[in-house]
Amino acid sequence: MLFSRNGYYDSRVIEGARVIDPVEGIDAALTVTVENGVITRLEPASARPGFVLAPAFVDPHVHLRTPGREDEETIASGTGAAAAGGYCAILAIPNTEPVVDSAAVLASLVEKAKNEALVPVGFMAAISKGQQGTELTEMGELAEAGAAGFTDDGRPVVSPGLMRRALQYSPVAGRRIAVHCEEPSLTRGAQMHEGVVSAELGFGGYPSVGESVMVERDLSLAGYEGQPIHLMHLSARESVEALSRAQAGGVQATGEVTPHHLCLTDEAVRSLDANVKMSPPLRSSDDRDALVAGLRDGTICAVATDHAPHARQEKDVPFEEAPFGVTGLETAFAALNTHLVGPGLISLPTLLERMSTGPARAFGLEPPRIAVGAPANLVLLDTEAAWRVTEDGFRSRSANSWLLGQTVKGKVLMTIAAGRVVHE
Amino acid sequence: MTTNAFLRPARRHLLSIDDLVREDIERLLATARSFESALEREMKKLPTLRGRTVVNLFFESSTRTSSSFELAAKRLSADVMTIRAAGSSVDKGESLKDTALTLNAYDPDVIVIRHEAIGAPQLVADVTGAHVVNAGDGKHQHPTQALLDLYTIQQEFGRIEGLHVAIVGDVLHSRVARSNIQALVMCGARVTLVGPPTLIPRGIEAMGCESTADIGAIVEADVVYVLRMQRERMLEGANYVPSLREYTALWGVTPERLRPGQKVMHPGPMNRGVEIDPRVADSPDALIEAQVRSGLVTRMAVLYDLLTHGPVVVPTAAAMEVA
Hints:
Largest sheet of chain A: 8 strands, parallel
Radius of gyration of chain A: 20 Å
Strand order of the largest sheet of chain B: 7-6-5-8-9
Number of domains of chain B: 2
Helix content of chain B: 25-40%
Oligomer: heterodimer
Distance between the termini of chain A: 26 Å
Largest interface: A-B, 24 and 28 residues
Number of strands of chain A: 17
CATH class of the largest domain in chain B: Alpha Beta
CATH topology of chain A: TIM Barrel
CATH class of chain A: Alpha Beta
Number of helices of chain B: 9
Strand content of chain A: 15-25%
Shape of chain B: globular
Helix content of chain A: 25-40%
CATH superfamily of chain A: Metal-dependent hydrolases
Number of domains of chain A: 1
Number of helices of chain A: 14
CATH architecture of the largest domain in chain B: 3-Layer(aba) Sandwich
CATH topology of the largest domain in chain B: Rossmann fold
Strand order of the largest sheet of chain A: 5-6-7-8-9-12-13-14
Order of helices and strands of chain B: HEHEHEHEHEHEEEHEHH
Largest sheet of chain B: 5 strands, parallel
Shape of chain A: globular
Strand content of chain B: 5-15%
């Protein structure tokens, strides 16, 4: 399901770091040895302050813009950005031009990834042909060709009938259905969260219920069909509460949340900066609190960046004319370490789990772990290092980051993905 | 130049009423009053902004706002040019940023911009060296409209503090309403929004106003401010109101719904017979023409204030030799 350039494996000795692995239950000062891409020794050591070694991150939600918008991102640049962000695996979203809705398109991406991908990448395929919401894609054949999951992300599956069929059919493919929950008749003309700030600024509002009514519908359908479902980029308190209720009722549902929804609220939109315009939108501080609590207690098992690169000229326009989406791969850990771990809203081990094991399990991927004999998928962090986010520091082809110009704490010093050092 | 001029940011803009505090509004209204008395003279042109350049950049149709900005700049002896999107390089696909940069090459002192997208004036302020005045951006703000409305109210009542203003109609799509709510609340007026619940934005009470769907509430107000029913902003099938006919029946401002002596305002252009009864529009209690007149002196005050920072000194007749 994951594809990358192959060929070589690296060896490294990572001396004296606090090693945190929620899967193996490790939180200790160790020196870790990697030989030919495999972890071979774990030895007690004294840790350098701030240095943390953890299983590398997994991002289940990345827009690689390939095929079609290679000016914004390519497989090479997007996986380069992932490497810089500490990721050992990413899943690409199929809302490209053309849409990844046939085995032929998927096969060409797999070939490209085998030549270009620095970090292993999985390709999701569309639920419906052309993401038009009317006909199912050939999910069986797509899974055989290597699809990592199915989603129409970028747009919702409007028809409950089609959504039900997708869930019913999904065991044939054996892959997770991931849904972008939005009721379009409630979000027409929306530019930001509907609330006090949109009332004052005059923007068309995207109400919380525009998301949560679809969350409720999809959870009901998944429960009825007894199939697993993954809810993408949750933004509203009502959605988190619905997910929690469904999980308690036995629905196999997982959820993800983005760094920007965890760090910001709709107050940020007062700046009219096009780099805080995304969909779903930044919501109220009450919604943000619910998202943080959901991530902390595990209702939401995954951080997903929803990395959405946009060309400079497309964001360099008035807010109302700008496209939705921000980049996130290279800043996710720093943003969350600064805004959540720093103020004590979530512990570092929990955050690391939600950025690695959580998303891997949600999509049936082998979670990265730190154990003798395991393939090396490691991220070395300096949790104390402060740095300024600047446009020229990105490996992504795009720079539409909400953190531009800000100083954050927490730096990725090294990433080892599938046994190769991809960032140092 | 005031002594604390160095404390101010080097370049000021008027993008939103939010950029102002109450003292700013009071100073601007006082400046507008001095200009009004100056304009009563036979020689209407003041040399105050001679050698300054004002660019009017209008991407949306406008009669009263663009003409009043143009005349305001001319009355102050500034060089003024008005550029409309139709027939300009915008037609050829030029981005707003490039249009702004092109104009910036002429080193204008002020750029007045009207644009259909929220955030356009902010973008122009970010990329040019000019003072930027927002002459209306989408549904966001129209600060000079609010200032001229406050000026009109002040002229009529001698005060704003303690007055009760009812704003009636399509608040959701109205930049005029948003700027007016902010400015009126800032100056101590009580503001009540009246209209269909579908056209009153959720959460707007946080701006310090009240809201109701009951048209009967307008009878308590000192001023009834009627908003244009903006049909062109209504997304098709959005069902904000079942029909214009029903809107007029339930929220139209008619003589029967007013009490004698209540003042009525409207930012124009009016849909007579829709949001406002023609008998109301033409009554002596309507301040609609006064609003248009206020627009000129208020916009003169805004241009003057941005470019000088100081209290206005109306030149004596002797000093008024204009080329």
